[in-house]
Amino acid sequence: MAKILVFYYTRTGNTEKMANLIAEGMRLVQGARIDVKRVPGITAREWLQYDALVAGVPVYYGMIPADVKQLFDESVEFHSQLQGKLGGAFASSANVGGGNETAILDILHGWLIHGMLVFGDAMNDHYGPVSIGEPDKRATDVCLRWGRIFAETAVRLFGETK
Ligand SMILES: Cc1cc2nc3c(=O)[nH]c(=O)nc-3n(C[C@H](O)[C@H](O)[C@H](O)COP(=O)(O)O)c2cc1C
Questions:
Q1: Where do the structural domains in the chain lie, given as residue ranges?
Q2: For 16-31, how does the pLDDT look when each residue is reduced to its tens digit (9 = 90+)?
Q3: Protein residues with CB under 6 Å of any ligand 1 atom
Q4: Is residue 30 helix, strand or coil?
Q5: What residues contact 102, with CB distance under 8 A and at least 6 apart?
Q6: How far is the CA of 108 from the centre of ligand 1 (A)?
Q7: Is 60 exceeded by the pLDDT of residue 42?
Q8: What angle, 0 to 180 degrees and rounded to 10, lies between the N-to-C axes of helices 66-74 and 100-113?
Q9: pTM of the complete model beyond 0.85
Q10: How many angstroms separate the alpha carbon of residue 127 from the centre of ligand 1?
């Protein structure tokens, strides 16, 4: 089974656009089932239902928004039960050098501490897709490709969802 959850926080819609592009890329992959959910609106415990988790954030002071950190803090209740799942992250900032990679790394650290496999990309945005403001052509292409290769990897690891 390759059940993938893409969850994101947004205030002005940029991260939501990235989430939808990433999901669009994922849906090109046969055998992957994709859910896209907004924070607030999910509980950390829902992560247990998925094989692969992708978190998207706007960069706040180089870090992740409190609502997303809150989910990680809640997840201690089921610590060790995410071992072996696949994790990824993406981020949107206002500025070049505004902290996209530091915010993504915060999420990837959380996935690692949960014992998860962390997804990188040798070709484009290495840590996960980034966008400066609304996704432009470059960010759009990166999100679509990243979503596709993430889902392909999830299907390879966990098998097809019928
Ligand atoms: C509280 C707050 C902190 C922010 N901190 C940063 C920052 O450190 N670096 C940056 O480039 N942009 C920063 N921004 C801008 C947002 O990251 C950026 O506008 C982002 O695209 C918003 O995503 P959204 O449209 O999904 O809400 C900040 C915005 C807010 C509201």
A1: 2-158
A2: 999 999 999 999 999 9
A3: 10-15, 58-62, 92-95, 98-99, 133
A4: coil
A5: 59, 62, 63
A6: 19
A7: yes
A8: 10
A9: yes
A10: 18
